[in-house]
Amino acid sequence: MLKDNLKICKRTCLGPTYGGEITKLLILNPVDEKNIYQDKYLAYATKDKVVGIIKLPLDGNPNNTLGLIAHSTDITGISSTIDGKLFFTSGSHDYCVNIW
């Protein structure tokens, strides 16, 4: 994380170490005024088959990360429902859309 005005690194967090580089990120469970204790998550996709979620805030704890092989080939897209309870991934050559 960078401090806005000084461009100084404040913290470095460990990201997922499997599945290759992260190519897509998506915040799940946007702010809900009714439930201030609702957990927030960050969904991610790598170019090579892996999709996962990370519990926010980012703290580098590997126990807050889950990743799995979602498609047989490249992941081309990721999106979520408006309420952030479900997210979707699409594969390139397998012609599948998965609901998570």
Task: Characterise the protein shown here.
- This protein has strands at residues 22-28, 41-46, 50-55, 65-69, 75-80, 87-91, 97-99.
- With 100 residues, the chain is mostly beta strands.
- A four-stranded antiparallel sheet has the order 1-2-3-4, with no helix packed on it. Strands 5-6-7 form a three-stranded antiparallel sheet, with no helix packed on it.
- The model has no long low-confidence stretch (mean pLDDT 81).
Give a short synopsis of this structure.
Helices cover 0% and strands 38% of the residues.
Radius of gyration: 15 Å
E-strand count: 7
Helix content: under 10%
Q: How are the strands of the biggest sheet laid out side by side?
A: 1-2-3-4
Secondary structure layout plus pairing:
Layout: E1 22-28, E2 41-46, E3 50-55, E4 65-69, E5 75-80, E6 87-91, E7 97-99
Antiparallel strand pairs: 1-2, 2-3, 3-4, 5-6, 6-7
Question: What labels describe this entry?
Answer:
100 residues, globular, mainly beta
